[in-house]
């Protein structure tokens, strides 16, 4: 059985909420489902999280769950689901999630909505606020609003986010993503609130502001993962800079050994078309050449007409292109090797490079882990072979689903013969295969490396 090394995150929504479609998405290659808390009521998300977990369990597939909090993000609140906008139209300023910004706005400021698809110019007249449209089209409710270059002192979390954290704790969600992270302090605030809910999920910082780019190194030190949220980022900074910043963020995440998700508009045309553009396929492929851990679908699966086809096309694109990354990653990245887990990971990767040239039956790694640290240390080398992670802790197994190349299992008896039996039954390995094994030592983490021939 072969799986992609690069993971797929799919946003769940009205277009794919049925049990049958969720099942098809999982079988087509989805590794993690994202629940966007900016949309739908809390009860809907509660029901969907439970549905995803139930279907994944019935299929015997490990699937991660990620909730995406709104944070200090500004969203419009229309009186109806959509509004037709004409170029040159003057309209009253929308109701928004953070009305406290109005006194700080100045006439002539540019305001962007829906990842920059709509541009307006702000003006004040007789104490009232107006927007002059420089775009046209159908504007949907609850879309993001950006005012580039302006940093408002918003709270890190809004009331709805606290409801989301309560729901996440009740359903043992694996990842919590925070929108519009500005500095490392935002992540600290989120962690303190998560602690109150006894929520042990991994924290994913969404990088979508210029200020976050300025504080990226410090944000990396306090986060468990990063999302390159290119939609809003492409409004906050010039569009031509987004590809460069994507590469920088991914590189820094790899060096740090934390997973990174590349997101937004990857197959955007498939919201309405059964086939993507060639440029979109190139975008997905280039993310694999950047060595991202995961790629994400948003509207393509949440509201699109072809959610399953979008996942299938993404899976095929990843599968073909990730195999072409043949360059030794040690030549591409200046890895710091200090911790014992990092030393062992480097040795295992070096042995992998040697074995893969000499033995056609090299099948990957088996790593026994208590914390996932040794698994992530190995994953950052981006070996083109699966890392089979075995842990007693189901939370660790779930939180490894986003990491490049990792296929995780829970196993109470951390014994090689038990692990091999699981892999044989799952058809990941066969007789004659060779694997590199990273063993634990009592109370000291993963410290020993060996080889195993499957018989």
Automatic annotation (TrEMBL):
<comment type="similarity">
    <text>Belongs to the pyruvate kinase family.</text>
</comment>
<dbReference type="InterPro" id="IPR015793">
    <property type="entry name" value="Pyrv_Knase_brl"/>
</dbReference>
<dbReference type="InterPro" id="IPR015806">
    <property type="entry name" value="Pyrv_Knase_insert_dom_sf"/>
</dbReference>
<dbReference type="GO" id="GO:0016301">
    <property type="term" value="F:kinase activity"/>
</dbReference>
<keyword id="KW-0479">Metal-binding</keyword>
<feature type="domain" description="Pyruvate kinase barrel">
    <location>
        <begin position="6"/>
        <end position="311"/>
    </location>
</feature>
<keyword id="KW-0547">Nucleotide-binding</keyword>
<dbReference type="GO" id="GO:0030955">
    <property type="term" value="F:potassium ion binding"/>
</dbReference>
<keyword id="KW-0418">Kinase</keyword>
<dbReference type="Pfam" id="PF02887">
    <property type="entry name" value="PK_C"/>
</dbReference>
<dbReference type="InterPro" id="IPR001697">
    <property type="entry name" value="Pyr_Knase"/>
</dbReference>
<dbReference type="GO" id="GO:0004743">
    <property type="term" value="F:pyruvate kinase activity"/>
</dbReference>
<keyword id="KW-0808">Transferase</keyword>
<dbReference type="GO" id="GO:0005524">
    <property type="term" value="F:ATP binding"/>
</dbReference>
<keyword id="KW-0067">ATP-binding</keyword>
<keyword id="KW-0324">Glycolysis</keyword>
<dbReference type="InterPro" id="IPR040442">
    <property type="entry name" value="Pyrv_kinase-like_dom_sf"/>
</dbReference>
<dbReference type="Pfam" id="PF00224">
    <property type="entry name" value="PK"/>
</dbReference>
<dbReference type="InterPro" id="IPR015813">
    <property type="entry name" value="Pyrv/PenolPyrv_kinase-like_dom"/>
</dbReference>
<dbReference type="InterPro" id="IPR015795">
    <property type="entry name" value="Pyrv_Knase_C"/>
</dbReference>
<dbReference type="InterPro" id="IPR036918">
    <property type="entry name" value="Pyrv_Knase_C_sf"/>
</dbReference>
<comment type="pathway">
    <text>Carbohydrate degradation; glycolysis; pyruvate from D-glyceraldehyde 3-phosphate: step 5/5.</text>
</comment>
<keyword id="KW-0670">Pyruvate</keyword>
<dbReference type="InterPro" id="IPR011037">
    <property type="entry name" value="Pyrv_Knase-like_insert_dom_sf"/>
</dbReference>
<dbReference type="GO" id="GO:0000287">
    <property type="term" value="F:magnesium ion binding"/>
</dbReference>
<keyword id="KW-0460">Magnesium</keyword>
<protein>
    <recommendedName>
        <fullName>Pyruvate kinase</fullName>
        <ecNumber>2.7.1.40</ecNumber>
    </recommendedName>
</protein>
<feature type="domain" description="Pyruvate kinase C-terminal">
    <location>
        <begin position="361"/>
        <end position="443"/>
    </location>
</feature>
């Amino acid at each position: 059985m072969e799986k992609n090394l690069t993971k797929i995150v799919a946003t769940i929504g009205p277009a794919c909420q049925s049990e049958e479609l969720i099942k098809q998405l999982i079988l087509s290659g989805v590794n993690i489902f994202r629940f966007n808390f900016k949309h739908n009521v809390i009860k809907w998300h509660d029901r969907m999280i439970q549905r995803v977990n139930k279907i994944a369990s019935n299929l015997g597939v490990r699937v991660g769950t990620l909730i995406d909090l709104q944070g200090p993000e500004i969203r419009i609140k229309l009186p109806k689901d959509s509004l037709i906008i004409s170029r040159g139209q003057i309209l009253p300023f929308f109701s928004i999630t953070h009305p406290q910004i109005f006194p700080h706005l100045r006439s002539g400021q540019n305001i962007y909505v829906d990842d920059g698809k709509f541009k307006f110019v702000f003006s004040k007249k007789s104490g009232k606020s107006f927007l002059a449209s420089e775009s046209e089209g159908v504007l949907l409710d609850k879309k993001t609003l950006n005012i580039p270059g302006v940093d408002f002192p918003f709270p890190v979390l809004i009331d709805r986010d606290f409801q989301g954290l309560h729901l996440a704790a009740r359903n043992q969600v694996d990842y919590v993503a925070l929108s519009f992270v500005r500095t490392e302090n935002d992540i600290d605030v989120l962690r303190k609130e998560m602690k109150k809910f006894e929520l042990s999920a991994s924290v994913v910082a969404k990088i979508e502001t210029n200020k976050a780019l300025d504080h990226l190194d410090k944000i990396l030190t306090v986060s468990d993962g990063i999302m390159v949220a290119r939609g809003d980022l492409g409004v906050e900074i010039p569009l031509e800079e987004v590809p460069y910043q994507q590469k920088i963020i991914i590189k820094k995440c790899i060096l740090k050994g934390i997973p990174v998700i590349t997101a937004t508009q990857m197959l955007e045309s498939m919201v309405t078309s059964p086939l993507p553009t060639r440029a979109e396929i190139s975008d997905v492929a280039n993310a694999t050449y950047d060595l991202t851990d995961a790629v994400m679908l948003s509207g393509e699966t949440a509201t699109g007409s072809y959610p399953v086809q979008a996942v299938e096309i993404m899976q095929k694109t990843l599968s073909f292109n990730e195999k072409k990354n043949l360059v030794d990653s040690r030549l591409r990245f200046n890895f710091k090797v200090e911790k014992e887990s990092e030393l062992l990971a480097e040795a295992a990767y070096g042995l992998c490079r040697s074995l893969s040239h000499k033995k056609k039956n090299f099948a990957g790694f088996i790593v026994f882990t208590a914390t996932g640290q040794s698994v992530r240390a190995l994953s950052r080398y981006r070996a083109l072979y699966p890392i089979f992670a075995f842990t007693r802790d189901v939370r660790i197994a779930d939180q490894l689903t986003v990491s490049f190349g990792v296929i995780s299992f829970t196993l109470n008896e951390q014994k090689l013969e038990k692990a091999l039996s699981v892999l044989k039954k799952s058809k990941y390995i066969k007789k004659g295969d060779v694997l590199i094994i990273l063993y634990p030592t009592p109370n000291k983490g993963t410290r020993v490396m060996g080889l195993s021939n499957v018989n």
